[in-house]
């Protein structure tokens, strides 16, 4: 349960910010921005250097968020 609470604290969705896309702690740093940096090969340390308002736990929360988002089953009707 602790991870779920932490994830909800770190990943926010506000319809009036960034088009309602998931962001990190209410900042205008989208989860997709963090994932894109990781996808091109940056390490967590490098992502935090690139986006100094982030913390290492924010990067981990972005990964957990994406994993949970993709982990939901899709039911075909």
From TrEMBL:
Source organism per entry reads Gemmatimonas phototrophica
List the Pfam families hit by this protein, alphabetically: DUF433
Domain of life per record: Bacteria
Q: What is this protein called?
A: DUF433 domain-containing protein
Instruction: List the InterPro entries hit by this protein, alphabetically.
Output: DUF433, Homeodomain-like_sf, WH-like_DNA-bd_sf
């Amino acid at each position: 349960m602790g991870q779920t609470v932490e994830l909800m604290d770190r990943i926010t969705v506000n319809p009036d910010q960034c088009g309602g896309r998931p962001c990190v702690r209410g900042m205008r740093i989208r989860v997709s921005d963090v994932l894109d940096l990781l996808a091109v090969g940056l390490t967590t340390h490098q992502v935090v250097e690139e986006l100094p308002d982030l913390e290492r736990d924010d990067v981990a929360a972005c990964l957990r968020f994406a994993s949970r988002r993709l982990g939901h089953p899709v039911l075909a009707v």
